[in-house]
Amino acid sequence: LTLPSGTKRTALPMVVLVHGGPFIRGGNWGWEAESQFLASRGYAVLAPEFRGSTGFGFAHFRAGWKQWGLAMQDDIADGVRWAIQQGIADPKRICIAGASYGGYAALMGLVRDPDLYQCGINFAGVTDIKLMFGHWSFASDMSERYRKYGMPELVGDQVKDAVQLMATSPLAQAARVRKPLLLAYGEKDRRVPVYHGKKFYAEVKETNPDVEWIAYPTEGHGLADPKNRIDYWTRVEKFLERHIGKP
Fold first, then answer.
1. Residue 108 φ/ψ, nearest 5 degrees
2. Catalytic residue check, 100
């Protein structure tokens, strides 16, 4: 939990910042630029280490296997409810955001817990798990070995878990996403190709009039060019001001 400077510590607008991976350690005791940027604008920032995150023992890591959009998502929602119960977060001013897996979780948060979040921000997020197994228009930086042996155990098996993968697909549930949404992708992304975003955008805009789309032609799975970082975070700042109020 990162809080803005100043005396006010209750009923704050809050951004739930979900880390990518997801099977990594999300944060450390050190400089976290994204959290500090948001806190400098007056937002509380909750960065949950949901099950599947590493660094908290094997049981915590193992509990996240095949839990994309399920118990992993519940952990994030439980963290939000904790922040509300503690009086830290204003329940009417909470936005869920993230990149890569965090972008996927932002979309699934709007699907599963629309009562908790007033908006969502997704950068380079997976929009359908099955697309991660499928055809790639160019060389992926995800190994064939991981897709063949790792993903079926950690994320889900395309055949055995087909029903679950459909139920936890933001693309398949796009019509349920009715809250304001910011989508951003790098057109040269080799981890989560831009067609994840384009397919989802085509679906969600049919039922949601408040969706902002941006694609960065020269970027991959992240923002390397400073001018693109400034552009993206300027958009994020304005988006948050519109939807959970200027702090």
1. -70, -30
2. yes
Q: Other CB atoms closer than 10 Å to residue 45's CB: what's the count?
A: 22
Q: Phi and psi at residue 160, in whole multiples of 5°?
A: -65, -35
- C-alpha–C-alpha distance, residues 68 and 103, integer Å: 12
Distances (CA, A) of 155 to 59, 70, 77: 16, 11, 20
Query: Cα–Cα distance between 221 and 56 in angstroms, integer?
Result: 26
Identified catalytic residue from 169, 189, 196, 243: 189
Q: Residues in the chain with pLDDT < 50?
A: none
Could you give the residue ranges of the DSSP H alpha helices within the chain? 33-40, 58-62, 71-85, 101-112, 129-133, 144-145, 151-154, 162-167, 195-204, 226-244
* Annotated catalytic residue, options 19, 196, 221, 243: 221
- In this structure, what DSSP letter does residue 2 have? B
For residue 189, indicate whether it is catalytic: yes
Q: What percent of the chain has pLDDT over 70?
A: 96
Note the pTM of the prediction, 2 decimals. 0.94
Report DSSP letters for 30-54, one per residue: S--HHHHHHHHTT-EEE----TT-S
Known catalytic residue at 221: yes
